[in-house]
Design goal:
InterPro entries: SAM-dependent_MTases_sf. This is Methyltransferase. It comes from viral metagenome. By secondary structure, the protein is α/β, with parallel strands linked by helices. The chain has one domain: Rossmann fold, CATH 3.40.50.150. About 25% of the residues lie in helices and about 20% in strands. It has helices at about 5-10, 30-35, 55-65, 115-125, 145-155, 165-170, and strands spanning about 45-50, 70-75, 85-90, 110, 135-140, 160-165, 175-180.
């Protein structure tokens, strides 16, 4: 039986309850499918900033059969209960230091938090050094890529820009992607 794609999982009845905008107002799921499909049956650590109601955590749990998902948010939105493979923490990314990852080195790290440039830069500078070799670090919802690109360049780590603004007409439908 063929495994379901991220888009198919996201369209499953009941999944909408958990609320993720990665495949609704944004168009990230086809990109994530291309990036993540070679990794989906591997043992992975996934770290995400911004769990809101936990929709993306549930999506990752269903898609990645062996992944441990650790996610933080500053708002307690009363998400779904944790599971064996999902760890939710009420924390601010700006309070996290590299030591936080001493027992959890991410293979995939995603920032879907405040979308403030300074928080995104902090995320990159803090998480990229602890990202596993071959890992992916993704910053979602870049607010103004034209003006902010130079700030990302100033970090000194090569990155790719995935600009999806023309797909749905959203000004912030832009991903920054780092490969380690």
């Amino acid at each position: 039986m063929k495994e379901m794609t991220l888009v198919e999982i996201n369209k499953e009845p009941g999944n909408g309850f958990y609320l993720t905008n990665k495949g609704t107002i944004h168009n990230y799921l086809p990109i994530y499918e291309a990036l993540f499909s070679p990794l989906r049956d591997k043992e992975l650590n996934i770290f995400e900033v911004g769990y809101y109601h936990g929709g993306s955590s549930k999506l990752w749990e269903k898609y990645f059969s062996k992944a441990i998902i650790k996610t933080i948010d500053i708002d307690n939105c009363v998400p779904f209960p944790e599971s064996e493979r999902i760890i939710l923490e009420l924390r601010d990314i700006n309070d996290i230091r590299q030591e936080y990852f001493s027992d959890f080195f991410p293979d995939i790290a995603i920032d879907d938090g405040s979308h403030l440039l300074e928080d995104q830069i902090y995320f990159i500078k803090t998480v990229y050094p602890v990202l596993k070799e071959g890992g992916l670090l993704i910053v979602e919802d870049i607010q103004n890529i034209k003006n902010q690109k130079v700030v990302f360049e100033s970090i000194g780590i090569p990155f790719d820009i995935i600009d999806l603004r023309k797909v749905k007409g959203r000004y912030d439908d832009v991903l920054i992607l780092y490969h380690k």
